Amino acid sequence: MIVGGDITCPRCQNKDSTQRVSLIAKQVDGTLSPQEVESLMDRLNSGEAQQWNKPNGGATWEQLEKTFRFRPKPRLPWWVNPSASTIRFGGFAIVVGILALLYFLSSLIPPPVLGLLAFLILLFFLSLVGYQFSVGAGKARRAYEAEMVAWSNARTNWTRTWYCARDNVIFVPPSLQTFAPDKISTLL
Ligand SMILES: [Zn+2]
What we know:
Layout (H helix, E strand, L loop, with lengths): L1 E2 L14 E3 H9 L4 H12 L4 E2 L9 H8 L15 H23 L4 H50 L1 E3 L4 E3 L12 H4 L1
Antiparallel strand pairs: 1-3, 2-4, 4-5
Helix pairs in contact: 1-3, 4-5
Bound molecules: zinc ion.
């Protein structure tokens, strides 16, 4: 792995072994853009970066990348933002269920009261289902929005976090404090 960025490590005071944590993840995944590869090669050739087969401290780059990996974006529960086919099948299932119930009830009750009763039951069930759904969906949506804010703040901090392969420490410039790699979650 080629490591070397334009930020000085607060511990060894060198730039040749520091790298953004997010760029390490990309190098391990092989998802660097051509520009990023080019800039790393330029740095390596000019001596501003170094090749580290393994960072100091025993871990492999792959293990380190797992430590640094950023959690995936939170997702809205499927039933809050359901797909068209979920709505169609779900709605169909509810209507069939209610019709089956009404059919069953109609065998117990004499016909004159049936029409009104059937209508009231249908109305009751549909409003109950609708009410429960909207309350639940509102709660889930608010929870999701709060999670999204926390997630994107953490992600911003993650992209600001640097690693030094020589000292096996992470830091967030301009702060000069350094931490062990596994402490990354406390910085995010
Ligand atoms: Zn260092």
